[in-house]
């Protein structure tokens, strides 16, 4: 019923924005922060601010350890939810993806790079805070495996940091501006796998709602915006999204044969 309704909304919409959080990637084996068993049930978020990271090599050692052991540097594979979102693009129904995720999985599933707005950066890279050279995370992880617990820049020995936004850091301004613009210009905004409590990312659905867009939320647990949603589906993104997109495909086909 809700799946059918969401498929209808997608078919009718002119501009569909998909907004994703860590929950879209749990079925790829990357834990989220706030679910039971998530990263915050094992680590204290207070320990992972940019201020702490910059404060000492010991703090950096702890943060690299948490990022690698916690699964955030995992080079995961897209799951059926990522592929279903990419299929919306193939069907001509995707304006863009705005994501809080740092795992690169939307691009890996086939959404064009220029349609993915990464509000919190991308963990596939590490950046030197002094000379700004970037290194593939795969390479940095190799150094860690070889025993370098606090990797620094091989070029200038500056501090090396994952190219993701840490707590206490500003979001990339241009990406935030573009994501806001797309949110304010859509007529359907679909949230998938986010608690909607991390700001300013969580303002995006509100921007969309304020301009009259319909809101759909697919999430395992309740969110603060559930009461605004035209469609609310509590369930697994990897199970729901392929069903929704299959219905969209069928509806679009029957529309084109009728016209
Ligand atoms: P969150 O951890 O706060 O919430 C994830 C939400 O997803 C929860 O409400 C949970 O119920 C839901 N969920 C979990 N599995 C799901 C599934 N299979 N289907 C549908 N819903 C599911 O994550 P958030 O809201 O994205 O915000 C936290 C921060 O986490 C973000 O800043 C993000 O950068 C970071 N993060 C990213 C990754 C990643 O890139 N994969 C992983 C962990 C954390």
Describe the structure.
With 259 residues, the protein is α/β, with parallel strands linked by helices. 37% of the residues lie in helices and 16% in strands. The protein has helices spanning 2-12, 50-55, 57-69, 80-90, 105-109, 137-145, 173-184, 203-210, 237-258, and strands at residues 16-20, 96-99, 116-118, 121-128, 134-136, 160-164, 188-192, 214-218, 231-233. The longest helix has 22 residues, at 237-258. Nicotinamide-adenine-dinucleotide (NAD) binds next to helix 9.
Per-chain topology:
Elements: H1 2-12, E1 16-20, H2 50-55, H3 57-69, H4 80-90, E2 96-99, H5 105-109, E3 116-118, E4 121-128, E5 134-136, H6 137-145, E6 160-164, H7 173-184, E7 188-192, H8 203-210, E8 214-218, E9 231-233, H9 237-258
Parallel strand pairs: 1-2, 1-7, 2-3, 7-8, 8-9
Antiparallel strand pairs: 4-5, 4-6
The site of nicotinamide-adenine-dinucleotide has 30 residues, from helix 9.
